[in-house]
Backbone:
């Protein structure tokens, strides 16, 4: 004991507060090296603890736990706590691992802790110099599980990203799956606005609702039952992401990794002031998932925000791959504005999600993006020369550029989600991949054709889906593309209906013939489906029950009208006219509530009413609109225009109940069973992690009390 005490005294080189210059002799005022009495020992140790931060340069190079050297270049990571005391990371991590969050020297309770459950002292794995920590609030310490440690630093990037892992060889499965024994096809449906029109009458704008629903996935679905995906995550790791944001993001990405199948491939790209491919496009086998998680956990936050460079690198991963899975998508997450491209002066004036000159049209840097995610940049290229990769964007927190994130997703065919509370990032990712991992239909085209002479197609409001009317109104085509399992798309087709030919005794008029074609993701064969011909009766005088609008058509009219009103309200809000914006929303709500479908208690109309109310509340003041209103509105418009679920505000805090409604204003009616299942899985995992944290004993109570 005497030798250990002397060794500690020499290492700490204790001095009084008014110490001589550092170049003075380090042992000029050292205490005697003889062992003190027990009372003197406690007093001396107390003074040592209180004045450790003022020790000499030699003491700062000594770990007070193992008494080993902390000199730079020895291959040992160093942890410096907020109380200014430093230790070998391996030494202090071992203590923290057992729940000890107090400084061993001054007994200060830390709010910044090493985020590793274990630590390797291997020189090859600890050569990153000073190790970063994450500032966490007290409640996060109880709810956030520790992340496994990284084992290696990212490898240098190749000049060309053609190093993707080969796809698995196709083998013949002798065990037939339920889908192959009883294959299901997409289902078509159609509803005329009215079931009957007077024979002598004509209508210039008669609505027909046409819809298509994708086949479901079997309950015991295997990964072979849906299209495998090549997924690239493009993650913001700028300085503003440090702390709990980065911790939660890592957990969310690891959740994605755990839910990808062995035929799916993942690449990880990060960006701050520049961009880096942290992980190549690899299959998510057991080894692939393990190595992907290691790459994620090695990420550190620092620098500025260069969204353009991150997207360029993410696109390169997909463009330069040697082999291709049927589905390819990019997930982009950022909590700030691009500080390297576009209107930098405006960005500096906008510390929060402030109004900008391009708040409705998108950022100036869209023309810098690759044409494969921004097709309008394809000047001089053939229309089908490059595929378009959908970019699903996530605005993280209150400081992100919602206009830019919405514009990027909209141009690429993806969706924009608003993560208002950082704790919901995993649920937001879960909703997105729940859809991406359930693609059962590709290259879907919905075709409507006039079924009678004089019936002409006038317009097809199809949102962001491309539609075309040809043959002088005889045919209309809507290009939908991919469908998730059980996903539905509904469109209104407006027709001109002529009077019936009474002289020929006509009692019905055929309006439309509906067909669709798509590629089955399992067989990769093209499938054609024919729907029933849409007809209406043509009596001389229709009975009152036949002149009541169809609820299915009415609810779709309401949905489009609400989306148009919200878009108009946003335009007024960007102009600073919040009073007019709120008036428009109030009037639309009144009209909605008086509609036939709303009066009948339609679930979609109930949700639309909730949405209008929420948007109005987020436009109550300029500050509220700039903080959360703009992002909430743009995420909602993205959802409506693609008829696809997005995270909005604090969405996913409650799973949708039957009827597609939730008490949470952020939930949307477009969620599919696969999305809901994945969200439930995420939330259940979070509950388990919290329960484990609560039940874990606090071993810090076993520490001896601080010396007095």
Residues:
């Amino acid at each position: 004991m005497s030798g250990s005490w002397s060794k500690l005294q020499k290492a700490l080189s204790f001095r009084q507060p008014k110490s001589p210059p550092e170049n003075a002799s380090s042992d000029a005022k050292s205490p005697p090296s003889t062992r003190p009495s027990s009372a003197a020992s406690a007093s001396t140790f107390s003074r040592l603890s209180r004045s450790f931060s003022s020790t000499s340069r030699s003491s700062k190079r000594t770990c007070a736990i193992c008494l080993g050297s902390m000199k730079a270049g020895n291959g040992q990571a160093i942890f410096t706590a907020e109380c200014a005391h430093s230790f070998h990371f391996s030494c202090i991590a071992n203590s923290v691992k057992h729940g000890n969050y107090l400084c061993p020297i001054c007994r200060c309770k830390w709010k910044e802790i090493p985020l590793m459950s274990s630590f390797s002292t291997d020189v090859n794995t600890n050569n990153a110099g000073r190790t970063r920590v994450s500032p966490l609030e007290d409640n996060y310490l109880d709810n956030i599980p520790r992340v496994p440690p990284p084992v290696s630093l990212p490898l240098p990037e190749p000049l060309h990203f053609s190093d993707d892992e080969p796809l698995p060889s196709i083998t013949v499965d002798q065990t037939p799956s339920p889908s192959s024994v009883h294959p299901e096809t997409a289902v078509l449906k159609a509803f005329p606005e009215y079931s009957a029109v007077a024979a002598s009458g004509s209508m210039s704008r008669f609505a027909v609702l046409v819809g298509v629903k994708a086949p479901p996935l079997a309950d015991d679905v295997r990964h072979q039952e849906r299209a495998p995906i090549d997924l690239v995550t493009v993650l913001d790791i700028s300085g503003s992401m440090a702390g709990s944001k980065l911790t939660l993001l890592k957990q969310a990405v690891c959740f994605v990794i755990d839910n990808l199948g062995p035929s799916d491939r993942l690449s990880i790209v990060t960006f701050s002031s520049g961009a880096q491919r942290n992980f190549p496009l690899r299959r998510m086998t057991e080894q692939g998932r393990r190595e992907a998680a290691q790459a994620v956990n090695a990420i550190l936050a620092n620098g500025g925000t260069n969204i353009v460079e991150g997207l360029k690198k993410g696109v390169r991963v997909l463009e330069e791959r040697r082999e291709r899975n049927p589905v390819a998508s990019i997930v982009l997450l950022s909590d700030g504005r691009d500080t390297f491209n576009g209107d930098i002066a405006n960005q500096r004036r906008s510390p929060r999600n402030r109004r900008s000159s391009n708040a409705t049209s998108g950022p100036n840097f869209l023309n810098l993006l690759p044409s494969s995610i921004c097709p309008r940049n394809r000047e001089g290229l053939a229309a089908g020369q490059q595929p378009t990769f959908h970019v699903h964007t996530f605005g993280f927190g209150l400081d992100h550029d919602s206009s830019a994130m919405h514009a990027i997703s909209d141009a690429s065919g993806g969706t924009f989600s608003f993560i208002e509370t950082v704790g919901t990032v995993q649920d937001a990712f879960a909703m997105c991949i729940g859809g991406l991992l359930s693609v059962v239909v590709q290259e879907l085209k919905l075709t409507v054709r006039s079924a009678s002479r004089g019936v002409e197609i006038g317009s097809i409001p199809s949102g962001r889906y491309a539609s075309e009317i040809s043959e002088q109104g005889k045919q209309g085509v809507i290009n939908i593309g991919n469908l998730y399992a059980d996903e539905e798309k509904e469109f209104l087709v407006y027709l001109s209906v002529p009077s019936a030919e009474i002289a020929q005794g006509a009692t019905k008029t055929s309006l439309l013939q509906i067909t669709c074609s798509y590629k089955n993701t399992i067989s990769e064969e093209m499938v054609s489906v024919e729907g029933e011909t849409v007809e209406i009766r043509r009596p001389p005088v229709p009975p009152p029950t036949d002149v009541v609008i169809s609820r299915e058509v009415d609810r779709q009219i309401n949905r489009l009208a609400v989306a148009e009103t919200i878009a108009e309200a946003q335009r007024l809000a960007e102009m600073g006219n919040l009073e007019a914006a709120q008036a428009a929303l109030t009037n639309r709500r009144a009209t909605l509530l008086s509609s036939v479908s709303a009066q009948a208690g339609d679930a979609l109309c109930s949700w639309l009413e909730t949405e209008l109310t929420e948007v109005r509340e987020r436009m109550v003041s300029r500050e509220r609109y700039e903080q959360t209103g703009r992002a909430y509105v743009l995420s909602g418009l993205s959802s409506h225009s693609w008829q696809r679920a997005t995270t909005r505000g604090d969405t996913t805090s409650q799973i949708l109940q039957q009827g597609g409604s939730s008490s949470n204003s952020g939930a949307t009616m477009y969620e599919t069973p696969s999305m809901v299942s994945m969200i439930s899985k995420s939330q259940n995992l979070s509950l388990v992690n919290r329960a484990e944290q609560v039940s874990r004993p606090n071993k810090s109570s076993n520490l001896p009390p601080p010396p007095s």
User: Anything to note?
Assistant: The two ends are 20 Å apart (CA to CA).
